[in-house]
Every structure is written in C-alpha cells, then in structure tokens.
Amino acid sequence: MAERITVLSGKGGAGKSTCCVLIGKALVACGKKVLLADCDIGLRALDIFTGAQGETVYHWGDVLLGRCDAADAVVHCSAGFDLLSAPSALDDALTEAGFRGIINALDSRYDVILIDGPAGIGQGLRLAAAPSQKALLVSAPDDVSLCSCAAAAKELETACAVSTRLIINHFRFKAVRKSLQKNIDDSIDKAGARLIGIIPEDPNLWYFGSGGMLPKAQSPAIDACARIAARLLGRNLPLKVSALK
After folding, report:
1. End-to-end Cα, the chain, rounded Å
2. Cα–Cα dist 121/123, whole Å
3. Is residue 86 left, alpha or beta, with left meaning phi > 0 and alpha meaning psi from -120 to 50?
4. The Cα angle at residue 113 between residues 13 and 207, in degrees rounded to 5
5. Rg of the Cα trace of the chain?
6. In whole angstroms, how far apart are CA 71 and each of 5, 90, 140, 226?
7. Is the per-residue pLDDT at 19 higher than 90?
8. Contact of 36 with 48, CB cutoff 8 Å
9. Residue 101: how many CB atoms within 10 A of its CB?
10. Alpha-carbon distance 153 to 162, whole Å?
11. Is residue 16 predicted with pLDDT exceeding 80?
12. Residue 211 CB neighbours (<10 A)
C-alpha cells in the first residue's frame, strides 16, 4: 500500500508545486516508486514542472468520465516518477469519492503517491486531501502566507482528519534579521502545524517553471527537499541550519 501525501498551501506563490516535484525526485533517488497526482484543477502546473507538457493525453477527469482506464492516464517522466495530470476544468463528476477511487486503483503500483492540491481552502482542498493519510503545508515565512496556511491546517484537521506537517519555503536569515520575514519559531506558531523542513531561498529555482528544468544536484533547495523526503521515510534528521544562512 502506498503512502499518500497531499501537498497544499494556504495561498498561491508559496512554492507548493515546486516542493512536490523536488520531494518526488528525492524519493525516487531513495529507490521509491513515486506517482505525482495533480489535483490543481485548471492550472496543471505539474505538466510544466515535470517537463511532461504536451506528452499527457488523458487526465484523471477522463478516467471518471469513462474515457480511459486509470493506468492509461499515467505518463512516465524523465525525473523517474510517474505523473497523473489534472483535469483542465471543473466538472460535477470530479468528486472526492471518484478521485479517491482512482488513487485506490493505482495504489499497488507505488510506494509513495504525492498529490499536488490547489492553494486555498474549501472544496479543492478537501478533494485533494480525500485519498491521503498526510498533508504537507507549504508556506513562505510571511504573515499572509502563514495565516492562510493556518486556515488550511484547521480545515484539514476538522474536515479531512489527516496528519499535517509544515514546510517553510523561501527562507532567508538575512530577511529575518531585518524583520522582513518571520523567524522559524514564529512561523511554526502562526501556521499551527508541526515543522518537517525548511527550504532556503534558492536562485536555482527561478527559471524552474519555464520548462521543467530541474536545478543542479547541489542546489540548496534540492538538498533541503532530499532531507524532507528522508524524514517522510522515517529518518530522524536535524535541521541543517548552516544551509539556510
């Protein structure tokens, strides 16, 4: 049975989809069979971030509408994981039960299934979290992102009953010292979720969204996501604070 983890953020721009791809790649490097399932309906950012844009023929909405089987909607990506693309538009057929059924049908093929959910709260969050046991909440260390993250954490706890962990993204010690960002402790308190990892601001990611070009292996963000992946697999790793400065 695959471990199912939904990746979410309270607001857009926190780097949720980027984290999903980099953690997926790190899990593949650990020898795991990984599926990335895009549940950000209408945006389909994972097609771009994985370099699979133009290669996907079906999405999981097609499965629910009877146009193909679940396996037919999955494509293999050069990074080593598989991708299940999101529908391009909302439809009444896109239900929590239906999406859960698709993930159930694919479950035995994988060790880990990462579901990239939409930003915000409400129906989209509940749909993305429906098949999962865990959720990773990605937030930048600023008031707006953290408050939005706290709202998402509350809804996950009350409506979805999944275990949540916080990823602080775009972290810069220099900005903290200048009071331009929240420090680590204040970010955890404001988000209302336990910390699983911190990803430093990384210029190598600035052009990531323009065609699925993964940053180099020694990138600070790559290293941070590899450590998060290891923690997801049960390893007890301390925070690598020196890499955040």
Report:
1. 39
2. 7
3. beta
4. 35
5. 17
6. 20, 22, 35, 28
7. yes
8. no
9. 17
10. 9
11. yes
12. 10
Instruction: Flag whether the pTM goes above 0.85.
Output: yes
DSSP alpha helix (H) spans, the chain: 16-29, 45-49, 60-64, 96-106, 123-129, 143-155, 173-177, 184-191, 220-232
Token pair, residue 177, equals 């010292």
Tell me: pLDDT of 180 over 90: no
The position carrying tokens 């990462």 is 114
List all residues 6 or more positions away from 35 whose beta carbon is below 8 Å from its beta carbon: 2, 74, 81, 82, 83, 84, 106, 109, 110, 112, 113, 114
Tokens of 197: 């990892």
* Cα–Cα distance measured from residue 216 to residue 179, given in angstroms and rounded to the nearest whole number: 31
Q: How many CB atoms within 10 Å of residue 98?
A: 16
Which pair of tokens denotes residue 69? 């089987």
How many whole angstroms separate alpha carbon 153 and alpha carbon 125? 10
Q: State how far the alpha carbon of 92 is from the alpha carbons of 61, 89, 98, in Å.
A: 10, 10, 11
